[in-house]
What we know:
The protein is α+β, with helices and mostly antiparallel strands. It has three helices and seven strands; from the N terminus they run E-H-H-E-E-E-E-E-E-H. The chain has one domain (about 1-135): Thiol Ester Dehydrase, Chain A (Roll). The strands form two sheets. A five-stranded antiparallel β-sheet has the order 1-4-5-6-3. The two termini are about 15 Å apart. Keywords: Hydrolase.
Amino acid sequence: MFTQTTQIRVRYGETDQMGYLYYGNYALYYEVGRAEAIRTLGFTYAELEKQGIIMPVAELNSKYLRPAYYDDLITVKTILKELPVDHKIRFHSELYNEKGELLNIGVTTLVFLHADTRLRYGMPPVLMERLAPFFEKSPQ
């Protein structure tokens, strides 16, 4: 399993009239978590795009458990529970407040496509190479 965390402070412009982090902005927080997770592997989305690979979102699910508020420091935990074996990759996201309370759970499925043809592309070799060690079974 691969796990990475990053922190984001809720900005005033991201809140709604109730003072909550606006529900549509949770997807942006998932995106920050995914981008930072990929960065910790030693490359970026931009580098994949230069190689002619794009990763559009195919599915997004979000469960709101309790609100985040303006100026809260949110920890975004991004998890890959399984190593992708085809053209899809599924990121699990968990958002926590400073008290460690779980606020939100999200699952985002992205697909690998050739940028030119928009046809499916298998798991990029560089991504497989970097992720594989996190999924190797330890000897018992």
